Amino acid sequence: MSDLFKKAISLGLGLTVVSKEKVEKIVDDLVKRGELAPAESKALVNRLVERGEEEQSQIKKYIYEQVQRVLSELDVPKESDVVSLEQRIAVLEKKVLELEGSKQE
Q1: What's the confidence (pLDDT) of residue 1?
Q2: In whole angstroms, what is the distance from residue 50 CA to residue 30 CA?
Q3: What per-residue confidence (pLDDT) applies to 2?
Q4: For the chain, which residues make up each domain, given as ranges?
Q5: CA–CA separation, 17 and 14 (whole Å)
Q6: Cβ count within 10 A of residue 27
Q7: CB 105: neighbour CB atoms within 10 A?
Q8: Cα angle at 64 between 61 and 70, to 5 degrees?
Q9: pTM for the full predicted model
């Protein structure tokens, strides 16, 4: 296997953005050049795709956590807060209507 490709694999460079088809093409090229045994190619593709999926998951988790932190710092209400307030408003509106109805009697 070429040294550059080994380094890329060990560092996980770009695996999050490389498609399975692209990985398969690179591995096929390595097999054609004799740098990788054909029997090893499928396992290597699977390992690289799996590593890419893991990295994607980690990046998504990190981004989610950072967005939540920023929203919290900006005091942006959560969806549950808004729902709770909507429910309280509905109860208050009902009470106001009841009070207005009892005044007219």
Answers
A1: 46
A2: 19
A3: 55
A4: 15-74, 78-104
A5: 6
A6: 22
A7: 4
A8: 140
A9: 0.57
